[in-house]
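Chapter summary example.
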Amino acid sequence: MRDIRGDLEERATLCQEQIRAAHSHFETMIQQLQRERDTRIGDLKSLLGMVERLIEFENGNVGTVVTLPGSAVQHLTLADRIKAANG
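The structure predicted for these 87 residues follows.
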């Protein structure tokens, strides 16, 4: 009977190399996805900060808006307009 230990060791080594390559590729993809996620979160936080500053600005100046008597124009805050658009 032929000794197949050498063949089995070669197959095991080949399998280990394939597993290492797949693991390396997986780790690279995970790092790329994490970078993309971090970039997207940074963009969204920046946008949120701008919206918050705009709302603060509008809330600070809403008292200075003059509505003419008998005018059909009604001053809506940014928050009111957003609610109306979503509702």
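To summarize the output: Residues 5-61 form the longest helix (57 residues).
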